[in-house]
Design a protein that fits this description.
Layout lengths: L1 E6 L4 H13 L3 E3 L12 H14 L2 H9 L4 E5 L12 H12 L3 E4 L9 H7 L3 E2 L9
Parallel strand pairs: 1-2, 1-3, 3-4, 4-5
Helix pairs in contact: 3-4
């Protein structure tokens, strides 16, 4: 299965780790090519780089293009900014893209209790895997 890995780019290193594990399981997993500038950076540096990429490098469309032909996305929704199982605005858009592209939507953790987001994420019939990559089929 071709799977795009999405979530806060603060978790870039974890995204790469999960990508590699999915590949070991026989999937064709990928992350945005823009990840390279974020590896090994502090959270503050990552935030500056992310903003630069969004404003100057068309990061949102870059991942849209990468999603074409994929079968699914895996949302890495870890705790961030005091929010359990955080999903940010950009990731919510990517979930919407996946839905429109008829891709399966897997969530690493349960849906966060974020006002207005929860019902949208439920509506696209996300599959919660609770960190078990073998549930991706």
């Amino acid at each position: 299965m071709r799977i795009g890995i999405i979530g806060s780019m603060q978790f870039t290193e974890k995204m790469l780790e999960v990508r590699d594990k999915l590949r070991e399981l026989g999937h064709d997993a990928f992350v945005t090519d823009l990840h390279k500038a974020l590896v090994g950076k502090t959270d503050e540096e990552k935030e500056r780089i992310k903003l630069h990429q969004k404003y100057n490098m068309d990061a949102i469309r870059e991942f849209w293009r990468a999603m074409q032909g994929a079968d699914a996305v895996l949302v890495l929704n870890f705790d961030k900014n005091g929010i359990k199982n955080y999903i940010g605005g950009n990731t919510l858009m990517e979930i919407g893209f996946a839905h429109v592209l008829n891709q399966k939507i897997f969530l690493w953790n349960p849906i966060p209790d974020i006002p207005y987001y929860k019902t949208e994420i439920e509506a696209v019939k996300s599959i919660i895997i609770n960190g078990d990559l073998t549930k991706i089929k």
